[in-house]
Give the backbone structure.
Amino acid sequence: MVNIKGSYPRPCLDEYDAQLQLQSEMLSKMINQKDIVISHLGAAQGRLGDRKVLLVLDDVDRLAQLEALAKNVKWFGPKSRIIITTEDRGLLNAHGIDHIYKVNFPSNNEALQMFCMYAFGQKTPKDGFYELACEITYIVGELPLGLKVIGSHFRGLSKEQWSMEISRLRTNLDGEIESILKFSYDALCDEDKDLFLHIACLFYLVDIKILEELIGQRFKDLRRRLYVLEEKSLISIEYEYIKMHNLLAQLGKEIIRKEFREPGKRQFLNDYKDICEVVSTNTGSVVGINSNFGLNITEKAFEGMPNLQFLRVRYNSDHPNIISSSGPLTFISPKLRLIDWWYFPMTSLCFINNLEFLVELSMPYSKLEKLWDGIKLLRNLKLMALSYSKNLKELPNFSMATSLEWLNLMRCSSLVELPSSVGNLTNLQELSLERCSRLVSLPQLPDSLMFVNAENCESLEKLDCSFCNPGIWLNFANCFKLNQEARDLLIQTSPVKLVVLPGKEVPAYFTYRGYGNSVTVKLNQKPLPTSTKFKACILFDKEGEDDAISIYWDTTCVYT
């Protein structure tokens, strides 16, 4: 039975009558007899209980449908098989079904072949259409339904028509696809709909822990709500990251766009033209802005957006970030929880007075020379990323940023030192300083650190710190100016899990030596303790200047 979801009445005013209709349809197909009329739901068991059947129920979306069509395996004869397809895994669990197979999306190559079968009637693009076909497949993603509908739409069109239709496809969802995808969205409660729209417009590839900090106060029991969306195949969660299919993200943006004709009245802005209109008029009740292009704005651009919480601005060479004034921005919302602005064009953030609610500050490739003066209350800040900000010369006082967990300063080539207040970051877990070429020394660092990457800090000489976390990883590869005191500290610190250092020989500290891939250690203590720890130094021969060395290897201990 195909498309059960689409044939079931919505809204369903009489559930039992709808179940009878559904079971009648199933029996008519099973027995090959038209217009079977039944008066109760036990009819299926009475007519099929002694038959071996193969029953395929496609696109089920309500438990009542399963209760009408296959409430119990005893309804059917021995060796019968029932196959159910659904977007809602929760339905299968609720019905007591144990054998569940999750169908993954096709690979990129398989998706291209599927699209071509509908667009060209063959598995490969016709001559001259390869790049266009690849672009459309990328836009549509790996969703088979989208590949079918869009492929059929492009079939028979000229190359010029393809180019025109692709431009429309980038910003508008196909009507047929939208109506089908919206079934699952419409079945959500209002809170889950709101969460779906937040993810579709702003957070369709984000760490769950960061998402909890960003919107956890708005959505109580956020993890459970995410589970609901995942069960209904509206998102997927992989390695604690939320992912959403391109077409579903586009659906969410379409829903927001259609709510209000005026962009300034919408909750989220994703379209570049709409964003430009709102920031130019300085008015709007906007909560989130997500632009794939740089902004050309005046210093008053955000004055009319007191509710702005999420600001994400990416870069495009055709639309660079420009602030057409000599002064700083005059206002930005104190409610901001996310600032993710690539290639930020100003030299400081001194115009921001209140950062109390800020969770993430991400400004790679910025023109920042400093952030701000004095001490800011940053009690909610979890992530700060300023990588590739080559003009950044100083960092602020971090005394009030004790929740910070991740600090990325990679390739901040003008940075000479870290403030001593870094030692107050008692929750900091990762510190990235890779290619901070002018960094001379490191102050005392917090014991919470799990990973420090200072690779290619070519000016680094002193380490005025200690490392007490037994699980920490330290990478000081190509830090050739490290003094002997710093080297001894790194080599002899007992609890460190891994240290990478430049050098030409194994230090004398290591008494047992060997060549090749093994070393023999004589253990005189008998009996051996239940827990034995050791420290090994491995010297790699690096032939080329640009050769990469993997710092991961397998270690096996054999006692004889």
